[in-house]
Every structure is written in structure tokens, then in C-alpha cells.
Amino acid sequence: MLVIFVPDSAYIPPEKPAAAGWKISRHTTAGGTFYAHDNTYEKKVKRLTAIGLLAAATAAAGVGAILTSVGTQATERQLPVYCVERGDNKISLTFDVAWENSNTQELIDILDEYDARATFFVTGDWCDRYPDDIKMFADAGHEIQNHSDVHPHVKGMNVNDLITDTKSASRKIKDITDTEPTLYRAPYGEYDDTVITTVEGMGLTVIQWDVDSLDWKKPDPSAITKKVVNSVKSGSIVLFHNDLENTTEALPQILEQLSQKGYEFVPVSELIYTENYTIDPNGMQISIVQSNTEITPENVDEVMAQYSEQLHSAGVSDEQMALAAQAVKSGAEIPDEVYEALADYAMSNGITPASLIPDTAEAPDTMDSESSGAETESGIVK
Questions:
Q1: How many distinct structural domains can be found in the chain?
Q2: If pLDDT is split at 50, 70 and 90, which confidence band does 370 have?
Q3: Would residue 283 count as lying in a domain?
Q4: Nearest-angstrom CA–CA distance, 28 and 9
Q5: Which CATH number belongs to the domain containing residue 184 in this structure?
Q6: Which of 94, 245, 323, 344 has its CA 20 to 30 A from that of 354?
Q7: Residues 94 and 160 placed together within one structural domain of the fold
Q8: Which residues touch 230 (CB under 8 Å, ≥6 apart)?
């Protein structure tokens, strides 16, 4: 059985569920509804407005990767964010900061040269020893986030001790930067379900990485450069460490080569989604389109950019997306070729705007209202 997340207004049930052999259950969340079924459905529809069609296509893009087995969700392991599904070439450079401070100014200068804003995960102990360096990073436009207080092994740690350690680091960071941390990286990259649920219960999103520079092994700078440049993709989170000579030697080449490839360097807080998302089994954070997402002439370019990667994979070209966006802005009809490409993609993912549903179409009587809310508890929607 599969689960498809769709807005309430976008779901068209089968006209004859019993005859089609459908078994449908509904699981409501804050943002929409999970419909679980064991069949597929396709329906011919009348022509949409440009806005209606793009709503359908982008909704489909947002749910395309969220097909999953109902039975496995409740027992899935809790995961931090390793990377983010994005189509805009934004990535995050992160530095774990727990050692010394010999290269603070050098790091700031290199990052500034390439207009790169990074995230520094610092320990409370480092705050105690180098408060001026913390302020230097923050004043240069970089964000300071929580890397624990004394860098303990948190996996299996007593919950009260974990809370105390995490709170202490956050307090020290806020005292220096006047900004409360919103992200947490576990020391040594170690975590378990208790770490994830405890720290996120404190209002912090747990961040891992999908690209390890391996600078901590102190390889040749060229090896670090090759490893990072060849591994990065849109939405990547890259791990570095401060106070390593090979890191500062490799960083200019890394930034130069990635800049040439069109990547933009943003802090993690600007890379991730803070609501309406799921995390797949590989730790990729994926946005979920909500039923109240409204496409307007003012935001259509932003919406299309957000889902460009998924639409590309479905065969929708940049030119077709541009023509669709222009139709929204002008109020004109979408050209037939573009219309068909977007409509086919939306329909193939079971998404159709409510405006297309005939007045006679009603939800089948087989909906299971007792299961409402079950999927929220299983952790699908974060």
C-alpha cells in the first residue's frame, strides 16, 4: 500500500471505488491529508487556467518523492537533516568549531572574497575561550549554531545531561551574539533517536552533512578540494573544521570551482525548510506543498524555481516553465505544448485542482475517519 500526500482540495477520488477495487483510508495532518490506496486513478479534465495548472504541477512536484510504505513509517529511525532537496544550486558550508582559533580571520577573509556565508557550529567551551572570535564570525555575516557545550559523546547520554549540555551552549552563544541558536550538530556526528527527539523538542533542528571534506584526517589540500567539488550537489551541506591549515589552503580553490559551477553559499538556516517537510531514509529534507499554497503573478517565478528540478525530471523544459509563468502574469492561456507537459506530470502524480472536479464527484463512503491524524504521530510531517 502506498501513501500519497496531497492537499484536500487537490484529490479526486474514483467515481466507483468498489467496482475499481479501491481500499481508501484518510489520514489528516495539519497541512493536508494522506490518502492511502492500492490502485491508480486517471481522469480526463477540462482545461485549466494557468494558475490552476501550475498549482497542480507544483503540488505534484512537492509530493513526487513522498511515496512510501504505510507500515514502515511508525518504526523508522529518527534522522537529522543531511541535505535538502533544492533546484536552485544553493549549498551550505559548515565548520565544526571546538579546537583552537589560529585561523579565524583567514577564514573570514576567504569566505568574504567569494561572498560566501557559512554556518559555524561552536561548542560552549569554545565560546568561553574565544568570545571575540565568535563575535568576529557573527559580525562578518556568518551564523553561529550549537555544537554542544563540552563536546561529549551524546549517543546514549542521559536525557537530563543532554538537555543541560545543549542549553548551556545555546545560552553562551546568545550571550555573545544576541541570537538564539536554532540548529544543533551532535559532537562526532553521533546521534540516536533520543538525541534527535530531545534536541528537536528543545526547538533545535539537528543538522548532519552529506559531503565530508575529511579535512580532519589532514590530507593534502588538493585532495580536500577534489573530494568536495566532486561530491557537492544542489542542497548539499559540507563539513569542514576550523583551525586546520589544510582547510584554509583548500578553501579558496573549492569556492572558486563551485562558484564557476553556479553554486551559491548560504547559511544552513537559509537552506533548510522549517515547516511542512519530510525527511527521506537518506536524510534528505523534502518540502511538502500545502493546500493553502497560492500561486500568484507575484510569486510564480519563485514557485517555479523551487520545483524546477522535479519538473525538469518530468521532461518540462526551462522554456516551457517560463511560458507557463508568463501566462500566469498576463492572464493568458498556456500554450498547448506547455499545458500538456504540465498536465501530464500533475495527473501522473494524482494531483488535480479542485476546480476540475465535476459537481457530481463525491468522496467514497469507504473513507476511514478513525485513522485521522495517525501519520502525524508517525513522524512523516515534521
A1: 2
A2: very low
A3: no
A4: 13
A5: 3.20.20.370
A6: 323
A7: yes
A8: none
Is 312 marked active-site? Answer: no
- Which tens digit of pLDDT belongs to each residue from 315-338? 778 888 888 888 878 877 777 777
- Whole-structure pTM value: 0.63
The packing angle between helices 50-63 and 318-330, to 10°, is 140
Burial class of residue 141 (count of CB atoms within 10 Å of its CB; 0-12, 13-18, 19+):
middle
Q: Which residue has the higher pLDDT, 339 or 260?
A: 260
What's the rounded Cα separation, in Å, for the pair 44 and 304? 25
Tell me whether residue 220 is one of the annotated catalytic residues: no
Q: What is the DSSP letter of 215?
A: G
- Residue type, position 252, single letter: P
SS3 235: coil
Q: Which three cell numbers stand for residue 316?
A: 518540462
Burial of 376: CB neighbours in 10 Å, binned 0-12, 13-18, 19+: middle
DSSP state of 127: H
Mark which of 217, 239, 271 sits at the end of a domain.
271
- In percent, how much of the chain has pLDDT > 70? 66
Q: What are phi and psi of 318, to 5 degrees?
A: -60, -40
What is the residue range of 316's domain?
2-75+288-377
Same domain as 160, residue 66: no
pLDDT band at 296 (very low <50, low <70, confident <90, very high): confident
Buried b (16+ CB within 10 A) or exposed e, 309-341: bbbeebebeeebbebbbbbbeeeeebeeebbeb
Residue 22 class from Cβ within 10 Å (0-12 exposed, 13-18 middle, 19+ buried)?
middle
Same domain, 218 and 153: yes
Q: Which of 210-224, 251-265, 332-346 has the lowest mean pLDDT?
A: 332-346
Q: Are strands 119-122 and 90-97 parallel, antiparallel or unpaired?
A: parallel
When computed from its CA atoms, the radius of gyration of the chain, rounded to whole angstroms, is 23
Of 27, 96, 210, 215, which one is the catalytic site residue?
Answer: 96
Asked if residue 308 belongs to a domain, the reply is yes
Rounded Cα–Cα distance for residues 238 and 101 (Å): 20
